[in-house]
Structure prediction request, 335 residues.
Amino acid sequence: MDWKNLSFGYTKTNYNTRCYYRNGKWGSVELSDSEYINMHMAATCLHYGQEIFEGMKAFRGKDGKIRLFRWEENAKRFRHSAHGIMMPEVPDELFKEAVFKSILANKEFIPSYGTQGSLYIRPLLIGTGAELGVKPSREYLFIVFVSPVGPYFKEGFKPVNMMICRDMDRAAPHGTGTYKTGGNYAAGMRAVEKAHKAGYANVIFLDAKEKKYIDECGPANFFAIRDNTYITPESPSILDSITNKSLISLADNMGLKTERRKVKVEELATFEEAGACGTAAVISPIHIVADPVMRKEYVIGNGEPGPVSTRLYNRLTAVQLGDEQDAFGWITIVE
Ligand code: PLP
Ligand code: COI
Prediction:
């Protein structure tokens, strides 16, 4: 494998794990070598969007060990998402077993140390029972597959330009934005396509009610740096990013103030640095934010990653790779 030139895409590996929920109970975790699932055409995931997923990463350290980043947080968010759209929660121990089995069965697909690559782990829960009326399925399938990946934004740790979207929303204030469910991503696709066509890396969604505040940044949370402060939006419609939480802890540890609050669009003019953060994106610094409807363009920094974002990026990736001591207890050694 050419680990150094991986992009964020699907690569076939040897195995995935599967576990069925039937008659009100979870079965056992089974390894499968098939990439396909056989499913009823009336399954609730196909018609009514009963689908949730997660994303986390495992890394190969210099010492050869496999490190998994904050899986307990993903397990917890998976339960939150399941609860939100009326699916049975996957117990943390079952989640752990499936994730660990999937990693260990595909060890040769973990990119080597020093290549910027990692093993992306994608747990998925779908309603598989046949229903015609709108109601929760009685049967579910929990799958965990993995794929070696490189950076989500092809630029890697280089600033990208973003476009504010004012005519489409990703999620409503009391909607499904805090759940990692496929429907949110479908809702955002047309906006992302519009941004791509206009030459931007992705979309900044605003709060759906007032269109005054920054909500989310494509498949990532938004953060900014100003006056030695790490600032990130508080909103009832965004995904509670584990990367963002980790950056808040690191920022605090580095002596920055941290603020989670509503962030007005116009504040973009005052930020020294800005970025998108997430498991896939890690940190993607943001240089220009265009707001075409308001005929505004915000330029942040000089087109190079800012000093605070760089320190945050270096520390986060050092913990993930095992180059820095795991002072926060974020790492589980898988093997
Ligand atoms: N927001 C959205 C919409 C996402 O899809 C993701 C990716 O998981 C994130 C934020 C970042 O969350 P995390 O850091 O937990 O990966
Ligand atoms: C992740 O960062 O894990 C995500 O889920 C982003 C994904 C939608 C590509």
Notes: The mean pLDDT is 97. The chain has two domains: 3-149, 160-321. The domain at 3-149 is CATH 3.30.470.10 (D-amino Acid Aminotransferase; Chain A, domain 1). The first strand starts at residue 16 and ends at 22.
